Amino acid sequence: MESGLILLPILIVVSGAVAYIGNMVGRATGRRRLSIFGLRPRYTAHLITVATGMLITLISLASVLLVSQDARVGLFRLHDLREQIETAEARLAELKGGDISFLRNQEVLREVIDGRLPPDAILQRLDALRLRAVDRAVAGGAAPDLVSGAVLQLDPANLTWEAIARLISLRRGETIVRVVSLENALRGEALRVSVLLVDRRLVYRAGTVLLTAAVSGEGGRERVALELLGLADAAADRATGRLLSPPFARITDPPRAQVDVDDQRLAVAAITAAGREVRVQVLAARDITTEMPLVVRYAVAR
Hints:
Blueprint: H1 3-32, H2 41-67, H3 69-76, H4 78-97, E1 100-102, E2 107-114, H5 119-140, E3 152-154, H6 161-171, E4 174-181, E5 185-186, E6 191-199, E7 202-204, E8 209-216, H7 221-238, E9 257-259, H8 261-274, E10 277-284, E11 288-289, E12 294-300
Parallel strand pairs: 3-6, 9-12
Antiparallel strand pairs: 1-5, 2-4, 4-6, 7-11, 8-10, 10-12
Helix pairs in contact: 1-2, 2-3, 5-6, 7-8
């Protein structure tokens, strides 16, 4: 329920109560011809009426500010809010009219670093990754920040590459380090990035059956080839959450399947030669770890 639906009836009741009490006090003061601050009774009654109106305003304002966060922002931070809106609008106009160097959530670079290495070796590997990420960012259109001179700006601001190296060391295993763009970045601007750490694991062993389906050999070679590629893509979709997106893609993209051309050709030939519906298995062509593409092959039932 909106806070205004509760606040308005309360303000009406409270304002009416204060006005009634003020009126009663004013009338009592007039009848008794009381005086405040040496004023005449008539002026004293006027003063009480004015004070009652002021009290109604104060109570109403205090109630609004107490109940509504929006009212507090509008009253005390309206200028800052307008500046933020103007900045956001200017940024949006730039994004619409300018060239984007990196998309939000786009991977800039990745590297596998073994957390079991000595700390100095981990830091050296990470520094080499940082330099290559800077080169790639500059090649994509990023530029040094005018204040700090850095091409890559880590987020959060208090994060350091040394701290990231320590985190890798604590994982005590092979770690995939991903440098990721945090927002749509324009050419000529520094690139705000986050660093994601992912354990490198064996996801599929060579020969693992990823998918089984029936494919008809009666539709011709082209149709069979398309169906097989569709099966490979379906196997990759099933691996979402277990395998990473392709390098340099957005981290929200699904993993990608790869098929050897010769294996694809042999599978198409076997299915079309059968001339009927056959069972096809999509298998992992080799051991697949977290950061790898899903390399597959086909097994056609005879």
